[in-house]
């Protein structure tokens, strides 16, 4: 019973963290637009989040070692809350970039505490079920975050206070639990180039995943506003992409366990490219078809792009030894973060120069390059004959591999 209460507290905390930070990402874009920030400035703000996130992934485990899980989580929630409240106090793009970096650092720390705590608490017998719940909580938090946008007023004190309150609430479940804090599990080393040495295709794949999801989650609201969607419609637009990503997990996993991983990457790459090119044309913005068509495209965008990170990670795992798994997970997150850092800035310039619809032309080019590189790698190195089971991989912290590695080992026996 105590274990169940402890795990429930962890899941509620991570749901609230995801709701708060997940709301902040697109809401900053909408608020920045209302404050007349340029597209490049909005892209820079989004990039600041991932700079902080990458830093937090590397640094926060040391804080947990030093202070313990609960205190470290309280510190990170406090930093995130301060950064959220600071937005309306300093309505300047440079200031927002800095405070979004603080928020990114803090949320990485929150995930580090949660995932390391989960890893220490669960046993192999319940690992699969716990990870499945974790995945559902993660996606539910994203859905709730996007839905919240519909009821918030851009750039207002009240809206940012609501987001900050949700972040503060995330501290309560862990603060009230009587469960004893665990010791920190083994930390993944940050060997950034390990993924490139094990599987260059996987490194490029997760970087492209970072580029596409960061551009969509942070800059796509500009595109949505440009084609006439109001704030409620923008919320639905973003939610549709999350639902698409959720629905895609089953077919992506089924294909990845039955076909060559490179082939499955190609399939999703082609579908993503076609979807993005359609979204960049006048078909998507036609008043004849109405908003339902653009919502459908958003669903297809999530369906085709969200599984790419997990597919690339599964491909890398096929070539990795068991003692490389944790370090590989950290390296993949590094490449994902690099793609997520540069992409919103590039997207901002593309929108400024060519217009919002060309955001998806840019994303389609990234997927075309991934497809070409996939073909090239097929000639350079053959695929492995025995593949490890596919698993959905949240792009959270370096501890996520700890939640999966024993589960994967158990599934192979």
What do you see in this structure?
The protein is mostly helical and 413 residues long. The protein has a single domain (2-412), classed as Growth Hormone, Chain: A (Up-down Bundle). It is 81% helix and 0% strand. The chain has helices at residues 2-34, 39-67, 69-89, 93-121, 124-148, 157-169, 171-176, 194-198, 200-226, 231-258, 261-279, 282-285, 291-305, 307-319, 325-354, 358-380, 400-412. α9 packs antiparallel against α16. It is globular and about 55 Å long. The two termini are 30 Å apart.
Offer a quick outline of the entry.
With 413 residues, the protein is mainly alpha-helical. It contains 17 helices and no strands. It starts with a helix and ends with a helix.
In total, how many domains does the architecture comprise? 1
Tell me the CATH topology: Growth Hormone, Chain: A
Count of individual beta strands: 0
Strand content: under 5%
Low-confidence stretches: 406-413
Q: Mind telling me which CATH architecture this is?
A: Up-down Bundle
Query: What is the CA-based Rg, rounded?
Result: 20 Å
Separate helix tally: 17
Q: Report the span from N to C terminus.
A: 30 Å
Structure class: mainly alpha
Rounded mean pLDDT is 85
CATH class: Mainly Alpha
Shape: globular
Binned, the helix content reads over 70%
List the secondary-structure elements in sequence, H or E. Answer: HHHHHHHHHHHHHHHHH
């Amino acid at each position: 019973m105590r274990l169940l209460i402890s795990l429930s507290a962890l899941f509620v905390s991570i749901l609230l963290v995801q709701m708060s930070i997940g709301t902040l990402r697109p809401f900053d874009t909408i608020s920045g637009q209302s404050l007349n920030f340029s597209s490049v400035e909005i892209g820079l703000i989004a990039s600041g989040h991932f700079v902080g996130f990458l830093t937090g992934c590397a640094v926060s485990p040391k804080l947990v070692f030093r202070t313990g899980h609960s205190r470290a989580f309280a510190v990170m929630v406090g930093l995130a809350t301060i950064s959220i409240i600071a937005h309306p106090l300093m309505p300047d793009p440079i200031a927002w970039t800095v405070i979004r970096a603080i928020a990114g650092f803090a949320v990485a720390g929150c995930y580090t505490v949660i995932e390391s705590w989960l890893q220490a608490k669960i046993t192999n017998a319940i690992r699969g079920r716990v990870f499945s719940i974790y995945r559902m909580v993660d996606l539910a938090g994203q859905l709730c975050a996007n839905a919240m946008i519909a009821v918030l007023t851009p750039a207002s004190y009240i809206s940012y206070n609501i987001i900050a309150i949700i972040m503060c609430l995330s501290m309560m479940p862990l603060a009230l639990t009587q469960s004893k804090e665990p010791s920190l599990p083994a930390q993944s080393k940050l060997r950034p180039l390990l993924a490139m040495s094990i599987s260059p295709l996987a490194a490029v794949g997760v970087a492209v995943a970072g580029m596409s999801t960061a551009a969509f989650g942070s800059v796509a609201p500009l595109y949505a506003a440009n084609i006439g969607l109001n704030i409620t419609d923008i919320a639905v637009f973003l939610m549709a992409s999350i639902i698409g990503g959720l629905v895609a997990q089953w077919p992506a996993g089924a294909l990845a366990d039955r076909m060559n991983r490179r082939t499955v990457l190609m399939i999703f790459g082609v579908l993503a490219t076609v979807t993005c090119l359609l979204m960049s044309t006048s078909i998507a913005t036609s008043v004849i078809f109405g908003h339902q068509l653009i919502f459908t495209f958003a669903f297809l965008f999530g369906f085709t792009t969200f599984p790419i990170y997990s597919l690339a990670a599964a491909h890398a795992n096929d070539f990795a030894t068991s003692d490389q798994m944790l370090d590989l997970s950290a390296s993949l997150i590094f490449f994902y973060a690099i793609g997520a850092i540069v992409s919103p800035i590039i997207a901002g310039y593309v929108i400024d120069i060519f217009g919002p619809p060309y955001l998806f032309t840019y994303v389609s080019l990234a997927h075309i390059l991934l497809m070409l590189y996939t073909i090239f790698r097929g000639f350079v190195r053959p695929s492995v004959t025995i593949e490890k089971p596919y698993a959905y991989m949240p792009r959270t912290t370096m501890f996520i591999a700890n939640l999966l590695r024993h589960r994967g080992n158990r599934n192979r026996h």
